[in-house]
Each structure stands twice: as C-alpha cells, then as structure tokens.
Design goal:
Length: 294
C-alpha cells in the first residue's frame, strides 16, 4: 500500500499525508522494500522522484494484488453489491454532454460506487492511467491506439465549425482555408485533439493566432457575441444551433476524432470497472450509434 501510494503520487510527503504516516516511516518502508528486492524503485532527482523500470513493473503487480485483496475481502464479507471508488479522467465536453445519463444510471443502480471525476486533457489522462492515478479515462482523439493502454472506441465524435448568424463567413456558400486563416478563432487550450488538428490544418502565412478560452461554455458565449468562430464537438452546440443562436459554417472538416474509454494495459479489471465500461458502451450506442474507425 505504501509503495503504491508513493508511486501514484510521486511524492513521499503527499503519500505520508494521505496515509497519515510520518514521512520518515514512508521513506524507511520504501528503503526496506528496495533492499529486500535488491533494486532501486525510484530515481531521486533532487526534490523530485520518478519510477525506475523496476518500479514500473512492481506497480503493475501491486495494483493486481490490491485488486485481488479487495475482491477477496468483498467475497469473504458477503458484499451485497458493487462498491468502492472509481477515479475517472474526463474532459468538459464529455462530462457535461455525454456522461449525465451514465452518472444518473450508476447513482441509482449502484449507490455504493462513488465516481470521482478528474478533469484533464487527453495526454494528462493517458499519463495518469499509466501511472495508476486514474482507474479509467475518457479520451477524444484522432488516434485510437495508445502505448501502454487498452481502449474501446465508443463512437466517432462529429465536429462542427460554428459562428454567429451575422458573421461574414455565415453568408458564404463555401468557406476556404484562406477564409479561416484570416478569421478570429476561439479555441480550447493547446493539447485538446480537435483544437490541435484544426490549428495544424490552418498553419501557414497570415494565420491569426487562436484566442484561448478556459471552457466550452465561454467559447460559445464568445462566438454568439461575435468575437470569432470555433470548431467544437457537435454535441456541445446542438442546442444553440437548434435555437438559431449559432450557425454551422460550410467547411468540410478533413479529420475525425473518436470518443474512447481507456485503462492501463495488463490491469485486472474490478467488477465495478467492468460494469462502468459495459454501461458506458451500451448507453453511448443507444444515444447515437456512429461509425467506428476501420
């Protein structure tokens, strides 16, 4: 437990605080473990630490042991249903627009399962999954294979380029790349897959720098007020398009992104994690069955 906590947090101090141990006790336990195994599990880099190759291997076994221990305890104690906490990496577009039916279902069907949502960019989610900080994570990426992770593709996520109805580009029959390069673009922060793909598509002379906003809701308000255009998942602007507050610009988007669920390769899936994956797949397919990548 001590090694798993230090390996997850990459901090002796924070691990000691969460375990309610003295830091000297945590350090001594790790030193004793390294001595018994005959290998160093952490590289000490001044005030920072990181897992060695041996530490990475041991973390995988540790997670399996802890999962088996929890399963054995629940079985012996005669647990009457799924319980515990699932730490889920996600992003605003999925949390706000895709997850509510899943969260509501789990809350009513499995009240003893606590879903802890951690907002993060896809790259951060992938890193946290590999480190064991997250149990599972939602991704929205062009790539559907990720080193060290297992994934299930839930659906292709339609994207739409939007503007205010009175924006000059809204009157065009077709929008060109030169038109887009000259326009003011409102975007999420760098690291968001569809923003990065869009930025790469527009790269060239005369491109106007993107205006970064903290949230999709802020971006939508800015677009409605005429500050610029934006490329967003269609699900996030469906309401505004229907009410006429935004309009879709006639531009053929040359790339696609896919909503995915990911978890660490080789990890033994708990009963609760399997239930979450199964219901996420089912609810997404019922909501909007979309073509999968080949």
């Amino acid at each position: 437990m001590t090694f798993q906590k230090v390996a997850t947090l990459l901090s002796f101090t924070r691990a000691a605080e969460e375990l309610n141990y003295a830091q000297s006790s945590v350090t001594a336990q790790i030193r004793a473990l390294e001595s018994s195994l005959g290998v160093e599990l952490f590289d000490r880099l001044g005030g920072r630490i990181r897992l060695t190759a041996a530490g990475e291997k041991l973390l995988g076994y540790t997670e399996q042991i802890l999962t088996l221990t929890e399963a054995a305890r629940a079985d012996v104690a005669g647990s009457d249903g799924p319980s515990g906490t699932l730490v889920i990496g996600t992003m605003e577009s999925i949390t706000s627009y895709r997850m509510p039916p899943l969260l509501e279902f789990f809350h009513h069907r499995y009240p003893k399962v606590q879903l802890s949502l951690r907002p993060s960019l896809c790259a951060e989610t992938c890193h946290a999954l590999r480190q064991g900080t997250f149990d599972i994570g939602f991704l929205m990426e062009q790539e559907t294979r990720h080193q060290g992770l297992e994934t299930v593709v839930l659906a292709r996520e339609p994207l739409v380029l939007v503007a205010a109805p009175d924006h000059p580009l809204a009157r065009r029959e077709q929008v060109s790349l030169d038109d887009l390069r000259a326009a003011s673009v409102l975007a999420t922060e760098a690291g968001c897959a569809y923003r990065d793909l869009f930025e790469e598509e527009l790269r060239g002379a005369g491109t106007t720098p993107f205006l970064e906003f903290g949230t999709i809701e802020a971006i939508k308000r800015g677009v409605v007020s005429g500050l610029g255009i934006s490329l967003l998942p269609e699900v996030t602007v469906a309401g505004e398009l229907e009410k006429g507050e935004l309009t879709a610009l006639p531009w053929d988007i040359p790339f696609s992104v896919y909503t995915q669920l990911a978890w660490r390769s080789g990890r033994r899936l708990s009963r609760e994690l399997k239930l979450f994956i199964d219901h996420a797949v089912r609810l997404m397919q019922e909501e909007r069955p979309l073509p999968r990548p080949s």
